[in-house]
Each structure stands twice: as C-alpha cells, then as structure tokens.
Amino acid sequence: MADDPEEGMLSWDESVFRDEHVFEIDYVPETFAHRESEMRSLKYALRPAARGSRPLNVIARGPPGTGKTTAVQKVFGELGAQTDVRTVRVNCQVDSTRYSVFSRVFEGIFEYEPPSSGISFKKLFRQITEKLVEEDEVLVVALDDVNYLFYEGEASDTLYSLLRAHEAHSGAKIGVIVVSSDLNLDVIEDLDGRVQSVFRPEEVYFPVYDREEIADILQERVDRGFHEGVISTDVLDRVAELTAESGDLRVGIDLLRRAGLNAEMRASRTVNLEDVEQAYEKSKYVHLSHSLQALSDSEIELLEVIAENDGERAGDVYDAFHDQTGLGYTRYSEIINKLDQLDIIDATYTNVEGRGRSRQLSLRYDPEAVLNRLEDS
C-alpha cells in the first residue's frame, strides 16, 4: 500500500510490527544489557538461598526506568529454573497494605488466591510459614515499588512480619528484596527501629542509562519488535535522544510503539520523524500515567481539584475539595503528602501576610495533561 494518508490506515492483517508485545511494560527481554554488575550483586545476595539458607536482604534503588524490575524478574527466572527456591514479586503500587502483600505471597506459594474475606492476617501468615517449613523451601519476596508501602504507612509492619517469620515459626526462611524508585525516600531511616535492627540489606544502585546504552537497548527492541526497514537510523537516533532527555527508558519503549501505530494510521510501512514527534507528546508522560494508576477515588478527586486550581494556597484547595467530597482536613493532608512524595505535585511552604506559613500547591505537569490522563485512566 502506498504511503498516502488518503488511503487510510493499514488493513487488519498488515502491520509494521513483528511482535508488538516487545513494547509492552511487562515484557522481559531475552537480552538484558548494561546491567551486568547489578545482576551480579543480586545473585551474590541470593546465592545462599540456592543452598537452602536464608539469603541476604537487598535494597535495589534507582530512578524510574533503569531496569530494577527487569533485573529482579531475570534473577527470579533463573532461580526458579535452576533451584527449588520460591520467589514472589509483589507490585506494591497495586498491593499497598501488609495484608494484600501477604495475600500475593500466599497466592505465589499455594498457586491459588486466599479467601477474599473471613481469614485473619495471623492465619494467613501461619499458613504461609507452615508451608515453607513443611516443604523445606526458601522464599524470596520482592517488594517492587516499595515506596507505596511507605506512602500508606504499611512498610514497617510488612517488613517486620517477613523478616521475623523465623521467630514466629521456627525453620521459616524468607529473604526480601525491596525495590524503590523514590530517590527522596531513605528506606532504612524511615523504617521503625525494630525493623532496622534485622533488615541490614545489601544495596544495589541502578543509575540512569547513558545515551549510547539507551540506543543499544532500543535497537534490540526494534530488531525484535518491528519488521526490517521500519525504523531508520535517523528515527532511532531521535527516539534515543528524547529518551535520554527524560532519563526513563520506558519513555523510549513507549515512544517506539506509539510511533509505529502512527505510521500504521498513515498507511505507511515505515516510521518517520513526524510520527516520533507526535508520539512524544503522549510518551513523555509515561511516569505520570504510571503514578496515576495507583490512586484511589478520593486521591483522584483531590488531584482534579489541584489541576483546576493550580498554584493556589492549600487552604483554598482544601475548601474546594471539602465542598466536593465532604472529606476532612486530616485525609486531605495525607493525600497532599502522598501526591508530593509521588512527584505529581509540589507542596511548598510560603509566608502569607496575616496568616503565617501556608502551603502553596502546584502541579509538576501541565494541568491539561493531568486532567486528560485522569479521564483516560
């Protein structure tokens, strides 16, 4: 089909993609380049588990889109294939309470979900530890996006239960990997003293990929995901440039997919620079979209109010929020702190004449972009 916009998009059985799943957020690449030292550190910490002992605990830290989750998934895949070690990865953005974390652990061990109601945490915990002792298995739990447990005040209790399992049930062997993308969060400092005394983790830091590394990783995705000749060198260079500016590899992966869809919309078998620039207007908000997915209804309502009153004092925003939801100041303040921690808003204190210190709230993103993504979520 000719590259003529008037011809419409490619037909259902035609595509620029060889395998579109390569550009999905949950895709685990066969080749995991430029993270060799981080992988070695993770394997070092988990090696005792392969011998039937409790592994070392780990903090994996780094900005968003630097390969932390993929590294954990790759190591867990190797452990599962070569040893009897049980591994469970919990997405704390979705499961942000101690009970829900242990429900996912239960599911990972028993391969079915626990009853949705009527089972206490104590019983859930006991069934998990008894199964581990009975099978003489070591369990490694990865708390991915652990920062969400901190935002909800659940981190210390969750880690305490995991790390003290051997005291509650002799013979239970559990190791923990906590994964955090919040560089403002001091995981150790923000935990209770009772947890700090037993956690003592190895730290593995994941730095931002540089421009050459980004281009190399994206080239591998292009080779697997697109048909030959779809992405030219110039187009890939531009995608790598925009990705490096964002510091988040996920931007580049999403950008490739959206640019490919734009080309198909034009009935073209090749992606051009205009497809990339148009796609970037959405792909640059990947981190925002990821953060919005975890918000509750009341958190979304407050964010909408802030977007509509961007730059106003906190008191004025609270009045609008209270009128809309009926929720009180305590809950309002909790949500403000969470949105600030998520880097969705800035909540800065300013001196107001006659009123003392007051917080001024402003979005870190264009208000229209926030409102559009809230409508889509």
Notes on the protein architecture:
With 377 residues, the chain is of the alpha/beta class. It contains 17 helices and 7 strands. The chain has a 5-stranded parallel beta sheet, with helices on both faces. Strands 6-7 form a two-stranded antiparallel ribbon. The relative contact order is 0.12.
**Pairing-aware structural class of the strands and helices?**
alpha/beta
Mean pLDDT: 92
How much β-strand is present in the residues?
Answer: 5-15%
Helix content: 40-55%
Question: What is the CA-CA span between the terminal residues?
Answer: 35 Å
How do the strands of the widest beta sheet line up side by side? 2-3-4-1-5
Radius of gyration: 23 Å
Largest beta-sheet details:
5 strands, parallel
Number of strands: 7
**What is the tally of helical segments?**
17
Q: Tell me, briefly, the overall form.
A: globular
Report low-confidence residues grouped into runs of 5 or more: 1-6
Q: Secondary-structure element order, as H and E?
A: HEHEHHEHHHEHEHHHHHHHHEEH
Secondary-structure map with pairings?
Blueprint: H1 36-50, E1 58-61, H2 68-82, E2 86-91, H3 98-110, H4 121-135, E3 138-144, H5 147-151, H6 155-163, H7 165-168, E4 173-180, H8 193-199, E5 202-205, H9 211-225, H10 233-246, H11 249-265, H12 273-283, H13 286-292, H14 297-308, H15 314-325, H16 329-341, E6 345-352, E7 356-363, H17 367-376
Parallel strand pairs: 1-4, 1-5, 2-3, 3-4
Antiparallel strand pairs: 6-7
